[in-house]
């Protein structure tokens, strides 16, 4: 099946906009939970599908106001004659001929599975009313038995009465809805799509209705929409152009609609077209989906209409949709999250309307992600409105917008994200609550809008040739003939659910690689491993079941694979579609699928519309009578899967619409009909709940590329999704639910954690809320992109109630030792923590600031986008780890905290009660001050040459640390070591002075020189590591006047708002880097005295020896002194911090700078004996105490802040280089590969072994002559090594004179900023880059940029005074030539145009201010860059 075409580049033209304006949605198009708004369409007169003759009485009933119940009148069941109907046509599609080989083996005798509508009397000539005939095909027990129907309102759901309804080519006229029953597929011929055409007298909700509203029942329907599983519609055309703009049935008014679609998981609409009236006043809707939970639609086209897609669902995925001349392309009624991928809209008045809010749960649009999409001539691309302080989260990823009035408007104002008559490109733009990219550290969350900088770093293997995430439509093999298809049941394979088919299936698959193998509907029982070889193309029908059973799968300690897709190391093509993988009975050791194959071409290893079901269905022996809820112990026979699916390390895969479901209720119990929706839409009075146990959900270890579109994983014991050492993975949309039975038992039972690599061990938990199944774990993984993830926890022990307080479970998403993780639109329900990153970054909590309507909503969590591989925890570590404490601890009369040791309490800020100014004493320190100087060197050939050298001196200065005025201060983290089950804690503050700027001395040598002035930012260390500060309102800021009791137990009280932060620097207290009880160390190998922190500590440890550098620190209520340091390398004594401290530790040695500090009360610093005492440098030996501000920021020898390559030799590097020589010494000394930019350096050996080496050359060590001599020696070495070769001749063609015939076109790139009145004081600025173009003979036009329309725009953020050169821009068309500009802020870039040589642009250094006001605001400032396209291609 060919994908719907989505233009990637600007089109430049478009059809005309539709006449008129968008009309409101019909009143009944709402989230009709419990009919809370009284608008449900339940005022009709039909109680089900029309099955009989359309006589005058029935027509009057449908189209008039009769009150007779059609189904209560037996005479109206007169069946239309079918005996004389022409033989049904299968058409050219092989399925029309072969699907009849399928069956429903558990259905009653005589039941018919396959139904060709023509067999039931449909004609398909566009004239005959085929309503009743098609409804009989969909509803009847069989062709010969119309009196019995399939699963309707009195059934609730079924896996037994399944059906495929086939539509051969033709036009089928209908006058009332075709009702799609449960577990039904409507399938047309993809080579000749059948048309379902609405009659001029049509009456009803839609041409096809898959969840029937019951008249007079206050919005009740046949099926609970969230459980309306297993539906499919494909290869059909829906024509509403001849239908009345409004129709009446009984007292219910309707508008013409193609499909009424309320569904849950395992559902899809694909390869369908919706044709609607496009005249002024049109009311038509293509799809009406007012409620639901899940599903996928793909490869759909919509033409005309008022609302092409009315979309409301908890979560949903839409891919490859094309809208043309719709008044409103998409009206988002409500959602928690929706992913729109590959969407093209042309000439629509409104693109995506997110302004609706539902009274049910006060929910509007929670979030939308628009990915790889294109708006062309759409007046209002996206519309939203605020509801209180909330508005939808929006993620735009790779969006192209051309000729749009507004890209995003809020409450009708177009300036939220303005449009353009030209072309706009959005790489990654986000609006909503977000955590910007960090480097493994906390990023401060903000509720804002704008571009994500840097934009999403998309793994190259996930991207197609046009720069989009790869998509592949499901193959239907429509070009194959029925005779070329290998049919399993024609080759000895039984689909009756009896006898072991393992060997027969394996023989069939191995013998027909490369051929399409069709498994007709039915149950294929296997008692061993089915091996799917490379080259297999497997197709099912109505989800043909592979069902594992027997002793082979029963041993939990020795798991066995049911379906093995490829063998380890295989590469090639495997395609699977429309299959279902299930188990029967006790199968505790079953792995339902192991996916091993790796693609041989993009996406060649793939699976579509295929699902996994564990229990809850007829024939599974895992139903209500087998596995009831609320049991006192686990029933062993209900343990049914060790792992549902495993994508192994060397595999890759493309997965589209895949549902992994451990059943929470019995689908084949008629008591499902009694279930109804609660006020928040959750099913109530479910009498069919069951407890089935599967250990693990979807384990992904793939190194990629792996794509997962529209996937769900629900109710597994330990986790739903786990990425373990995975790489290059796309997920969007994804959805989970926690097992309803937890915490009875909790996630540590019945399967034993730790039997599989990567299992969560729950060692940090002490209660069932913590020991709950993870929705998503990302461990040791990288390059993962997620666009929308809904993670829910609704129940505890199968009872509702915990969602009201969001306390069903503690945490949902865990990360550890992972980086390049890009997560967009994450939403949750029933949990305390949304994201729990291990190893430092703070958890994200479900609270008011993160909630939109019913669920939490995070627009972007990018804390690990740029780093974080070093942040995590040992999976085998015990204890509660990091515990974030609620601020209410400070107001508690008897404050108590609990955790399972070892753990670290992250305390909230301490409120001071009023604004308090904290003053710090002056700080004496040493700084490097440097400058360049000219010197000469003599090469090996005797030639004397000039060069530039960098010279530095170390100066001593006194810094004035700025005061801190605050009403609250940070409090130090408190580490509880193992075995400490009870103690008291004396919280201490950690006051962090703000960074401040100083100016270096221009004459540091006091010799009359005047070197260039340099400024630097000083980052002070947090107190109490400095001397004790004073306060204007309190004498002892460092002591919190509260004693907190620690006890061992469930972590708490847990924070949800106003939480503290994990220590980042100066974290030696409380021994973040390791605490050894203050042990002393004496001997030749000792380096430091032991630290001690805690209630029982009395002193820091002494260190005596030739390698000692410092004494140990002591922090705690009983500490009396810091540890001493005695030795030739000692630099300081140990610090002491506590109410009983008497003095710091002494330091004795030639390098000692100071004794240990002492505080917080008046106590003495430790003694210091040595020639350097009381000089700066005493803290240089501590990793987190070091003076990172020492080095001159202009020093060319220092590594860049962004350089990931670092070594411990930075301080010793002083290298003289010729002007063209790189001086990043760290690259040579510590790295290899692409980061290395240095060819040669020379670094002398240190005088003695020390943790940080002394500077090689400084003012105090050598005179000027010695300095030059050393420089010449190194330059000679570089010259001898060939570092100073002549540069290669330039190959860049100089630009021809302006205005020559060589020029095809000229471009100007300008930077514009416009003031925008956004309602805030002072307003805001909107900034963007603009590309303008002109023919060569009109290049002078560009001198007046206000008169030239931009051909391309891209939003920017930097203010004008800080702007550099343009970033990458494009693609765009310049005088009809497709071009892109490549550049960065540091230098002018290059213009690349199709069919032309790449051309360097130039900087005319023109920063002229032009008063254009082109965007409707005050004058615009512009900076120009010139580019020329030359004719000589």
Keywords:
1433 residues; mainly beta; 10-stranded mixed beta sheet; 6 helices; 86 strands
Overall 3D geometry? globular
Number of helices: 6
Which oligomerization state do the chains in this entry correspond to?
single chain
Q: Beta-strand level of the residues, as a percent range?
A: 35-45%
Radius of gyration: 36 Å
Mean pLDDT across the residues is: 84
| Biggest sheet record | 36 strands, mixed
The helical percent reads under 10%
How many strand units? 86
Distance linking N and C termini:
39 Å
Low-confidence stretches: 65-85, 1025-1031, 1033-1037, 1068-1074, 1180-1186, 1199-1275, 1281-1300, 1413-1419
Structural class: mainly beta
Topology:
Layout lengths: L55 H8 L30 H5 L15 E3 L8 E5 L1 H9 E3 L2 E5 L13 E5 L3 E4 L3 E2 L4 E5 L5 E5 L9 E2 L21 E4 L1 E4 L7 E3 L2 E3 L2 E4 L6 E9 L9 E5 L6 E8 L3 E18 L3 E19 L3 E5 L12 E10 L3 E5 L8 E18 L2 E23 L10 E6 L34 E2 L14 H10 L4 E3 L4 E4 L3 E3 L4 E12 L11 E6 L5 E2 L1 E10 L6 E6 L2 E2 L5 E10 L24 E9 L5 E10 L13 E2 L5 E2 L8 E8 L5 E9 L4 E6 L2 E5 L2 E4 L36 E6 L2 E11 L16 E8 L2 E11 L1 E7 L6 E2 L5 E2 L2 E7 L19 E4 L11 E4 L3 E4 L3 E10 L3 E16 L5 E16 L4 E6 L4 E3 L5 E4 L10 E4 L15 E4 L11 E2 L12 E5 L32 E2 L9 E2 L9 E2 L9 E2 L9 E2 L9 E2 L9 E2 L9 E2 L8 E2 ...
Parallel strand pairs: 1-5, 2-6, 5-8, 6-9, 7-10, 8-11, 9-12, 10-15, 11-16, 12-16, 15-17, 16-18, 17-19, 18-19, 19-20, 20-21, 20-22, 21-23, 22-24, 23-24, 25-54, 27-28, 28-31, 29-31, 30-32, 31-34, 32-35, 33-36, 34-37, 35-38, 37-39, 38-42, 39-43, 42-44, 43-45, 43-46, 44-47, 45-48, 46-48, 47-49, ...
Antiparallel strand pairs: 3-4, 13-14, 24-25, 25-26, 40-41, 50-54, 51-52, 53-54, 57-62, 58-61, 58-66, 59-60, 63-67, 64-65, 77-78, 77-86, 78-79, 80-81, 81-82, 82-83, 84-85
